[in-house]
Give the backbone structure.
Amino acid sequence: MKKNLKKIMEMRKNERKKGWKEGFTFVETLGVLAIGAALTAGTTVSVSKLVATAKRTSAKNQIEEYSSALQSYFLDCGRFPTTEQGLNALWEKPEMYPVPDNWNGPYLEKKPALDPWGEKFGYISAESSPLPQQVNQNIPFVLYSYGPDKTEGGVGNNADICSWE
């Protein structure tokens, strides 16, 4: 038995001499953690850019959907909803003047939603309200979202998303 124990001890001693270790050192562990943190940071930046692009695309798609629904509303009712009636007129028959006689909605599959940043989409009817100066005056309505900064104007990712552009 002592011989076997001696043999095992000698084998372990030889393994250590050859560079075998029984675990990671503290420095090696820190190195692995640092590399992992750097990779995670790079991934986070890439993912946040993708999310921002996806939100802008979603807002544009919603504006196009509402524009199509407004066209259907116009074909049935002979006019677009007033600014005061808003996009809700696409979901339920307006009770506010002018009440459309030929309303045949709802014109959307679900109630008008908030934009991807949690705000209501803006809607202005040229028939009942003045349009912004930068809009061609022949356009019957405008739809817009102020984007992630939730304020008018902006550049790059904070630029407004508008139906007239």
